[in-house]
Write a structure and sequence with these properties.
With 225 residues, the chain is of the alpha/beta class. The protein is built from 9 helices and 8 strands. An 8-stranded parallel β-sheet has the order 7-6-5-4-3-2-1-8. The protein binds pyridoxal-5'-phosphate. The site of pyridoxal-5'-phosphate has 14 residues, from strand 8 and helix 9.
Length: 225
């Protein structure tokens, strides 16, 4: 299969999983994760109509932006250091990976200086893995009020990266947790968090069944890295 065919297969599987869950495929958007791949290859999916791309590193994202059409929308999906916030805010449509109160506060201040209102997701460390970034659920609950007071940040929802597993079904409980935790936070905060960024190449159909609105898929489209 070429890249176009693999992209189409991913889109078809998203639609099938959405239908299975009684959801509309229009409520799920694919973020094609382009990290480590060159602009030639990336251009193939852009030409095929995939305009939403994700990178996990700021430097790599900034390097690729000028080489691809301006109609491409970029999401930052990986850990963001405070010293790179000023550079990434003007180019990223959404930051999936706000993983601490300190980072949120820095982003809020810098967004104010730049006159921006960045769209962000809060990353939740759903399995409590020491190797992963993200708020523990307890921390997020405790800090929610302070996060919501960051008036420059448009908090759209939550993101998670479950533990690596060969079995897609192993991720289901983490996706269910993220959705239910989102519902709980919405009730407590009295605001809507409409976005759930969950699901990667190994488990995105399960994520869609459990309510993902953004799936981040790389290797299933571009091949292994
Ligand atoms: C690389 C990456 C993905 C995509 O992973 P694949 O398994 O290649 O689909 C998704 N999310 C994040 C945060 C990533 O860094």
């Amino acid at each position: 299969m070429d890249i176009r065919e693999k992209l189409q297969l991913v889109l078809d599987r998203i639609a099938t999983a959405a239908a299975k869950a009684g959801r509309s495929a229009d409520d799920v958007e694919l973020v094609a994760v382009t990290k480590t791949f060159g602009t030639e290859v990336i251009r193939e999916v852009v030409d095929a109509g995939q305009l939403l791309l994700g990178e996990n590193k700021v430097q790599e994202l900034l390097r690729k932006v000028p080489d691809l059409p301006a109609k491409v929308r970029w999401h930052l999906i990986g850990h963001l250091q405070s010293n790179k916030v000023r550079k990434v805010l003007p180019v990223a449509e959404m930051i999936h990976s706000v993983d601490s109160l300190d980072l949120a506060a820095d982003m809020d201040r810098i967004a104010g200086e730049l006159g921006l209102f960045p769209k962000v997701l809060l990353e939740v460390n759903v399995a409590g893995e020491a190797s992963k970034h993200g708020f523990t659920p307890a921390m997020l609950e405790a800090q929610m009020e302070t996060l919501l007071a960051c008036s420059r940040l448009e908090i759209h929802g939550l993101m998670c990266i479950p533990p690596i597993s060969k079995e897609p079904e192993d991720s289901r409980k983490h996706f269910v947790f993220l959705r239910e935790f989102r519902d709980h936070l919405e009730q407590r905060a009295g605001t809507k968090f409409t976005t759930l960024s969950m699901g990667m190449s190994g488990d995105y159909p399960v994520a869609v069944e459990e309510g993902a609105t953004l799936v981040r898929v790389g290797s299933a489209i571009f091949g292994s890295r």
